[in-house]
Write a structure and sequence with these properties.
homodimer; about 260 residues; alpha/beta; Stationary-phase Survival Protein Sure Homolog, Chain: A; nine-stranded mixed β-sheet; two-stranded antiparallel ribbon; 6 helices; 11 strands; globular
């Protein structure tokens, strides 16, 4: 049987330990092609590079694995992977991560990791974004690996839903403490920002984004709750932002005349 | 009666003609505060600046209007507007645009204009992203203005739906040719990319993103169809990306064990 073709990307950059862990897992399952940013791109959301040229170079980072580093955003990486690197080859799955830090709940909209996976999903490729709840560079991905392997194999075997995208977050626990996987919805949470204000050496003010995550959601079927209870959260996600239940509520707008 | 406080932003930058048109309209309705990027930020999606300081300066761009230019992304602008500029003042509405070019259908996920509006919606502020289907710098916003004014007043009077976000696209037509407003859903369309490949003066290859918009959606209730028929499209939108109907379909993932 032909081995599946697995496209791997991330947003922490091609040298991050998280993508190395993901390549380790993927290479046990299939043929791996990596196209990832040449520098960290956290918080890039679904940004694309429209006003600048993008560079793409072969990268000897993973032994025996075809890999490229890209000067663009995570979404640019996926676009270049499909149209320049893979061309006539079609990826059976795209996996993004493992992100250093949570992408549960509202983090999905800021996340380069998940936006890269979403971009692949738009191309009809089943896609999964993986994140570990540990922001540190030295995060330990070992406990996560066997779960990630099983989940990739499950998707390759069973296919994906219409949205083609899973947002998977993994609690920062030892393997025996992880209770299993929970399919859930995105919690209604947000970041409450504060800005650190300071002066540069020339006396000019600048601001630095900081903040804390606040979960306003009281439901028990959310990714945040699953993670708090020691489960890996799996949220089927999609790119259609239409608020369907609101369409009737604002229908009166059609009566506006000038 | 107290005049409403209207926060205005965009992604084409504070000197773009589109935001000037929006400020013109807004200042007929209420008190206006502008916080917008100091340079073009198209295609920035929901990017935020996490690894760099952000600058914010008062900008004398609009006569008699409180305005600030910001070195960050459109989403950064909204965060700084709320936490540094407005502080205890609460915006009654946030309007973003008028974007030079369409943000209908899948464009919403790449759009800095809509991401800025979505960020304000997360803060509980009713928000509208406005876009005119003309990419040129010299786009004519006059026909759009009276419709935009009526729509802002409608939202201020009637409130918004739970998602707090409307994606409004305006066909590039003369006023008498615009047939009215249509509440609709996001069309299932995507960009088919090509990359322009070239060599720089040092002989190094680079890539430039290009592509064409392809509508795969056969429904007649979409924003793309409304626009083609001469209507202004209004799509109630939201930040919850959960694919609810898929939750049951992938429930078997919970049976994965290692």
């Amino acid at each position: 049987m032909k081995k599946p073709l697995i496209l791997v990307t991330n947003d922490d950059g091609i040298t991050a330990p998280g993508i190395r862990a993901l390549v380790d897992v993927a290479s046990q399952i299939g043929e791996v092609v990596v196209v990832a940013p040449d520098s960290p791109q956290s918080g890039m959301g679904h940004a694309i590079t429209v006003s600048d040229p993008i560079r793409l170079h072969p990268a000897k980072v993973f032994e025996g694995i075809e890999a490229f580093e890209c000067s663009g955003t995570p979404v640019d990486c996926v676009k270049l992977a499909k149209h320049v690197v893979l061309k006539d080859r079609v990826a059976d799955i795209c996996i993004s991560g493992i992100n250093h830090g949570s992408n549960a709940s509202i983090n999905i909209i800021y996340s380069g990791t998940l936006s890269a996976a979403m971009e692949a999903s738009l191309e009809g490729i089943p896609s999964i974004g993986f994140s570990l709840l540990d922001y540190s560079h030295d995060a330990n991905f070992e406990a996560a690996k066997p779960f990630i392997k099983e989940l990739i194999e499950w998707v390759l075997e069973n296919g994906m839903t219409e949205g083609n995208l899973l947002n998977v977050n993994i609690p920062n626990l030892a393997r025996e403490e992880i209770k299993g996987l929970k399919v859930c919805r995105q919690a209604e949470a947000r970041w409450v920002e504060e800005f650190s204000e300071a002066e540069d050496p020339r006396g000019q003010k600048y601001y630095w984004l900081t903040g804390r995550f606040v979960n306003k959601d009281t439901g028990d079927d959310t990714d945040v709750v699953a993670l708090e209870n020691g489960y890996i959260s799996v949220v089927p996600s999609m790119h259609d932002l239409t608020h369907y239940s609101a369409i009737d509520k604002v229908k009166d707008i059609e009566n506006i005349s000038i």
